[in-house]
Amino acid sequence: MAEILGMISSQRGSETDPVTGPAVDPGWIRDFARAHEEAGFDRVLIGYSSASPDGFAIASAVLQATERLGVLIAHRPGFVAPTVLGRKLATLDHLSGGGRVAVHHISGGSDAEQARDGDYSTKPERYSRTAEFMQVLRKALNSSEPFDYAGDFYRVADANSAVHPVHPGGIPLWFGGLSEDAVRVGGEHADVYALFGEPKAQVADRIAAIRAVAERTGNHGLSFSMSTRPVVGVTEDEAWAKAEAYLEQAAHNKAAGAEDNPLRLRHKASDERTAESADRLQRLAHQRDVHDERLWFGITKLMGPQGNSSGHVGTGQQVADSLLEYWHLGVQNFLIRGFDQLGDVQDWGEHLIPHLRAGIVARLSVGCGAGNGVAADSSNPGSAIVGSSAGAGSRASVDSSARTASAGLRS
Predict the structure, then answer these.
(1) Entry pTM
(2) Which CATH number is 172's domain given?
(3) Of the ranges 21-35, 292-306, 308-322, 331-345, which one carries the lowest mean pLDDT score?
């Protein structure tokens, strides 16, 4: 699996663009989904929170509005039985032609957020529950015979389903989380482990820890995804100017109380921990605004703990090259979402996705699986550089004027 993913919302709105329209805007969903397909995305994430519209219904609308675009439906184990979810997923897989449906498991990093849906389990309990959930779900999706399961959280007897994925193993199980419990569960049970946009050194460290679990438990097919929110311009100076404008608009919206977004966690109590992945981004943001030359944490610092909020800044070629530097660390899937939601998707279809796709194809064409230390120059799909270090085979160096552009953002 090597995919480029976007993210769909049920209404227009981001940190830089106050939410407008109804909570479920069918026209927006249709247009946003088709824009992703036209831009060359493989799949779109449908997020989850205690206040957001139902992800399965949104997924159905996306699949109906497009011809090939896939969906990645986020959910939290504990609210629907895994056998029921298996039938829902398999049914949607058949209705959409097969191979377009995936599911993302979020155990829940915030106690208060879980309580809003009536779940008062502890964080360790939630991860243990997710482990059992994924085991039962995989059996429900793949087993042609009735099965039993007895765990601490789930017990089923003679479970059987008349509907299975169109293609065997055709509904990938994604997973997110970076706590020790998360690494233990995701490393053993996930098909794809989703990571936030951190500097390369931190991503390499996390992948090594997760792979150690995967190897120990026999999960040899595990792959990785990384999320980022690119800011792309025709020139690097233009990109950094756009990032600065986004930061100013987000600050204005935050001060005016206009950044309301149903997918953003509500403000937590002072003694409540948020998800480890969000805390890690905050620590990085308060170290400095820019890591690895162009990974920007300005919005991250401003908005506080929430979903993925760091992003790579530069021209489309520069951003693609920066993302592909994660390939030799083991990242094979890239989830990108913007601040100017529709406009960014349309721009990326012209300026970013072609370069990123070319780099992926180049690596796959020379047998370069993610993490094997081979990198190819995405501006020249036929090239490959063995033993690449960070920046090798990409436009790691830019002229001095570009390096000093928007110095206030990069301090």
Answers:
(1) 0.86
(2) 3.20.20.30
(3) 292-306
Instruction: Give yes or no for a contact between 225 and 330, defined as CB atoms under 8 angstroms apart.
Output: no
pLDDT value of position 21: 87
- What is the domain count for the chain? 1
Under 8 Å between Cβ of 375 and 358: no
pLDDT of residue 293: 92
- CA–CA dist 55, 38 (Å, integer): 22
Instruction: Outline where DSSP puts E strands in 308-362.
Output: 311-314, 331-336
Determine the pLDDT at residue 266: 40
Q: SS3 for 326?
A: coil
Q: Which domain holds residue 208?
A: 4-410
What is the tens place of the pLDDT at every residue in 233-268?
999 999 999 999 999 999 988 888 754 444 443 444
Neighbours of 196 (CB within 10 A): 24
Residue 175 CB-density burial (10 A; 0-12 exposed, 13-18 middle, 19+ buried): buried
What is the torsional sign of CA 370, 375, 379, 381? negative
Over the chain, what is the mean pLDDT? 86
pLDDT for the residue 335? 98
Q: How far is CA 355 from CA 52, 352, 361, 381, 384, in A?
A: 33, 6, 10, 9, 15
DSSP states of 139-188: HHHH-SS-EEEE-SS-EEEEE--S---SSTT-S-EEEE--SHHHHHHHHH
Residue type, 282: Q
Q: What does DSSP say about strands 374-375 and 385-386: parallel, antiparallel, or unpaired?
A: antiparallel
Strand 70-75 relative to strand 101-106: parallel, antiparallel, unpaired?
A: parallel
Residue pair 175/189 in contact (Cβ under 8 Å)? The answer is yes
Sole residue written with tokens 């721009």: 347
